[in-house]
Amino acid sequence: MENQPSGSLLSARIVTISIWTKDIEIQIKPYAEILQPEFIVITSMKPIPTEIKKRLSSFRIDVIDDIYPGGTGEKELVNYVKKALS
């Protein structure tokens, strides 16, 4: 389609961190390696531990947490999406 961004966005399912962290190696990392999207972001309504953020960052995967109305990540997510779509 015309005017569609070349990058991709990825958002984690709404589950606890202990459940989806195992998906980093078996789903998220291979996705990033194979498709090489311009943008990948994992979003979370709850805080994500710094060690997990660093691990994801090493795969060029961005993390935005505390995303809920009025949360600290709400504006960051809006800005991220604007950047990805521009």
Report the order of strands and helices: HHEHEH
State the low-pLDDT regions, or none: 1-5
Q: Span from first to last CA? A: 15 Å
Shape, principal axes of CA atoms: flat
Helix and strand content put the structural class at: mainly alpha
Count of individual beta strands: 2
Note the total helix count.
Answer: 4
Major sheet characteristics: 2 strands, parallel
Name the strands of the widest sheet in spatial order: 1-2
How would you sum up this structure, described in words?
It is a single chain. This protein is mainly alpha-helical and 86 residues long. The protein has one domain (17-85). Helix content is 43%, strand content 7%. A two-stranded parallel sheet has the order 1-2. The longest helix is centred in the middle third of the chain and has 13 residues, at 23-35. It is flat, with a radius of gyration of 13 Å.
What topology does this entry show?
Elements: H1 17-20, H2 23-35, E1 41-43, H3 50-57, E2 62-64, H4 74-85
Parallel strand pairs: 1-2
Which key terms come to mind for this protein?
4 helices, two-stranded parallel ribbon, 86 residues, disordered N terminus, mainly alpha
